[in-house]
Amino acid sequence: MPTKNKTLDIHQVAKRAKVSTATVSRAINRIPTVNPALAKRVWKAIDELGYYPNTQARALVSGRSRIFGIVVSELVNPFFPEMVQAFESIAVENQFEILLASTRNDPEQMKVSVRRMIERRVEGVAIMTFGMEDVLLEDLRLREIPLVFVDVGPQRPRVSNIRIDYQAGIRQAIEHLASLGHKRIAFIAGPHTLKSAEARRQAFLRSMEDAGLSGDPGLVVEGDHTLEGGRAACAKLLARKPRPTAVLCSNDLTAFGVMRKAYEDGISIPRDLSVVGFDDIRLAQFILPPLTTVRMSQADLARLAFQALLAEVERKTPLRDGYETRLETSLVVRESTAAAG
Q1: How distant, in Å, are the alpha carbons of 105, 291, 296 from that of 332?
Q2: Mean pLDDT of 125-129
């Protein structure tokens, strides 16, 4: 039964296991030269006492913190918590901890977050902000800390890139809407300052052209990836004459905002207006009507990011141009789209 002694330390573990403190230290840090029988006794004593090794002390001895950092833009968008949860689950399976930072698009917040990660001796950082933050790149790069970016990382050693195939899923969405008879298809983009948002906008324009649909410039408006932004952008689109029969959104939160505005104006979805989102966050399948959306799997994104960091940590010689992998997107058809009225 675990001890209630609040000052439990390595000496008591050594006494319980009848070994030296040096043996306990080597066993805890999984140094391969420790005698397997002694290591088994040490871990048995640790379990019986309920001792939790000091991770910072272990890092000093082993030279490894077994901590990965993950940086996201914000936590109010459900996409990011879902991705972080998947990343953490994989980390736990691989005996890693994670250190989470939300930049909130604030440069000072970013600097504090980076400093905290450096102080904790993170072994790698997944920068899942969907935008390029030079301060993050430079502060971490100078310390040769492995980095993973989404779309925007430079080709250099210790930097991995996850390229998102926005085109595939958005093309499927346009083909789906065109097959339902929609010709006036609007697009609500994300902030023009985000490269990922611009990539989605360009994918929309190319897909419209490929489908033989002449895009009306007035049907492409900028949002900000929030519920409120989607609602405001929808108001602009509904003021157009003639108004669009379908709207493709740069993310699911924007689509939720569109659906709210349509509800307020007595516009039926999908009878009067078809709506398509992007991301496929968990909430998308539970709203009414369930949202047709382009899936960019948070679980797959987290898995690719973790695997890239782990591979880089274990790689003795870094790749000259870094490492690149790809994440596919695909359309998930639900009930927010229907034939054009």
Answers
A1: 30, 9, 10
A2: 87
Q: Considering only CA atoms, which of 70, 298, 206, 214 is closest in space to residue 198?
A: 206
Checking 204-213 for CB contacts under 8 A at 24+ apart, the result is 204/170, 204/174, 204/248, 206/167, 206/171, 207/167, 207/170, 207/171, 207/173, 207/174, 207/175, 208/174, 210/171, 210/174, 211/174, 211/175, 211/178, 213/174, 213/178, 213/183, 213/185
Question: Would you state the pLDDT for residue 4?
Answer: 47
How far is CA 7 from each of CA 11, 40, 46, rounded to the nearest angstrom? 10, 23, 14
- Side-chain half-sphere CA neighbours of 66 within 13 A: 19
- pLDDT exceeding 70 applies to what percent of the chain? 89
Sign, CA dihedral 212-216-219-224, equals positive
Residue type present at position 188: I
Residue where the block lists tokens 């958005």: 170
CB 173 within 8 A of CB 248: yes
Tokens of 310: 């782990």
d(CA 311, CA 20) in angstroms, rounded, equals 35
DSSP-assigned letter for residue 283: G
The whole-angstrom separation of Cα 328 and Cα 338 is 25
Residue 119 to residues 43, 62, 93, 122, 313, Cα–Cα distance (Å):
29, 16, 24, 8, 18
Question: What is the value of pTM for the model shown?
Answer: 0.81
- Three-state SS for 72? strand
Encoding tokens for residue 339?
Answer: 């034939």
Q: Are 246 and 276 in contact (CB under 8 A)?
A: yes
pLDDT tens digit sequence for 58-73: 554 555 678 999 988 8
Q: 199 with 193: CB under 8 angstroms?
A: no
Query: Residue 301 above 50 pLDDT?
Result: yes
Do residues 285 and 256 lie in contact, with contact meaning Cβ atoms separated by under 8 Å?
Answer: no
Angle at 152 between CA 149 and CA 156, to 5 degrees: 75
pLDDT tens track for 133-145: 565 566 666 667 8
The letter for the amino acid at 125 is V
